[in-house]
Amino acid sequence: MPMSKVVVTGADGFVGRVLCELLESAGHQVLPLTRAQFVLGERRIANPSLESAIREARAVIHLAARAHVTREAHDDPLGEFRRVNLHGTLAVAELAARAGVARFVFVSSIGVLGDASGGRIFSENDAPSPAQPYAVSKWEAEQGLRVLAQSSALQIVVVRPPLTYGPHVKGNFLRLLRLVRSGVPLPFGGVRNSRSYIGVHNLCEFLILCAFHPSANGRTFNVSDGEDLSTPELLQLMAAAMGRKARLFRCPVPLMRAAATVLRKRTELDRLTANLRVDSSLAREALGWRPALDLRTGIAEMVRSFVG
To answer: 115 pLDDT exceeds 90?
Structure first.
């Protein structure tokens, strides 16, 4: 693969740092963009120096987003998510189109298809059904990018990952790691769910593939490690990597749901008890992608980084 110039937004984030490292190690010229360099949320970015810097880029990989909001401070959460994840995304894409960038890889979310897959496995053929403001804003951004692609030469690729893990992880995985390390008993021993995940290294390799592969143009991909775990299995893997045993006890899921509803933690609990399985066969068949790191090895690496 010849060296190319690639723009990465959100380059200082959990995924962005790994992505920039992999791009550079592959010999590409990386232009990392952080929020300090442009205001994400303005409907149009009027920044001649930024537009000039992006010129001659082969691709933009757009990671920057509003996510992991544990305590919402805005009266209109959906409006705030739209400001950053919808309007901000379209502003960056329009800037890329004006600068002559060939391809725009948008990191969306499997939440676009819903919070839970029930008894099926999410595929790209499923109708979008976003339930949370974050996912709604991502779905609206996907639609806006498709419209932009029809009126410009910019090629769009949409990637929908599930929960992403790896060294220096944030958000939900970090909270779970802290709970396991604390040694407090956790009431998930009786949970019988199945969820898909993706390691940050695997995700970044797939994003790079999407930036260059001819068959990725115009496609939407669900992507995962291809190995599903129940919440008890995940917690046990984390604990084992810490050299301890997970302290799990059985609590009826309906009782946990009732308590979580009172505590306004129902969404968080649903992520730990519901099924969310992802079919990533299209990514494998269309682009020949295979995850380089298996899930259990990736979880162990994440834990080693966490415990220091």
So the answer is: yes
Secondary structure string (H, E, C) spanning 45-93? CCCHHHHHHHCCCCEEEECCCCCCCCCCCCCCHHHHHHHHHHHHHHHHH
In the block, residue with structure tokens 């690639």? 6
pTM, 2 dp: 0.93
Separation CA 283–CA 291 (nearest Å): 10
Mean pLDDT (whole number) for 67-87: 80
Mean pLDDT of the chain: 92
- Least confident among 35-44, 51-60, 91-100, 294-303: 35-44
Q: Are 276 and 116 in contact (CB under 8 A)?
A: yes
The domain made up of 5-165+198-226+277-292 is a member of CATH 3.40.50.720: yes
Q: Name the catalytic one among 134, 188, 212, 289.
A: 134
- The 3-state DSSP class for residue 33 equals strand
Name the token pair of 17. Answer: 């740092």
Please name the residue that has the structure tokens 């060294």.
Answer: 167
Contact between 234 and 191 (Cβ < 8 Å)? no
Q: Where along the chain do its domains lie?
A: 5-165+198-226+277-292
pLDDT band (50, 70, 90) for residue 222: very high
* C-alpha–C-alpha distance, residues 205 and 218, integer Å: 19
Rg of the chain on CA atoms, in Å: 19
134 among known catalytic residues: yes
